[in-house]
């Protein structure tokens, strides 16, 4: 089959031209990837700095220096306090009036 004379001519691409074009595209993509890698690295450093700042702020806000009452640490020593009270009671002399219970008044109606 023969093409008409007025048909446009399609040139076959030169293999060396195609190779140069592909190499150019690869270099562009590698440059873009390198820029994105730098951006990712910078963002990771910024994230690490912000996380450290957040940790320090939490420590400043909630750390031990934020407690106003110095005796606040003793609030939850109930068990130790009970043990100390029991020891103090057993150490007292048995003949002291503190150990003898006071006689209780019986309840009832008051006389008219």
UniProtKB/TrEMBL annotation:
Signal peptide: none
Pfam family, one: LZ_Tnp_IS66
Domain Transposase TnpC homeodomain: 50-112
Comp. bias regions, Basic residues: 102-112
Domain of life from the UniProt record: Bacteria
Acidic residues composition bias: residue spans: 75-92
Region annotation Disordered: where it falls in the sequence: 59-112
UniProt name for this protein: Transposase TnpC homeodomain domain-containing protein
The species this protein was found in: Spartinivicinus poritis
């Amino acid at each position: 089959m023969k093409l008409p004379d007025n048909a446009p001519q399609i040139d076959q691409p030169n293999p060396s031209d195609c190779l140069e074009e592909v190499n150019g595209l690869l270099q562009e993509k590698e440059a873009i990837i390198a820029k994105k890698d730098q951006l990712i690295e910078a963002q990771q450093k910024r994230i690490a700095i912000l996380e450290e700042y957040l940790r320090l702020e939490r420590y400043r806000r909630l750390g031990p220096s934020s407690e106003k009452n110095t005796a606040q640490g003793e609030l939850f020593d109930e068990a130790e306090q009970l043990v100390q009270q029991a020891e103090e009671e057993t150490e007292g002399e048995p003949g002291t009036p503190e150990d003898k219970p006071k006689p209780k008044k019986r309840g009832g109606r008051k006389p008219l």
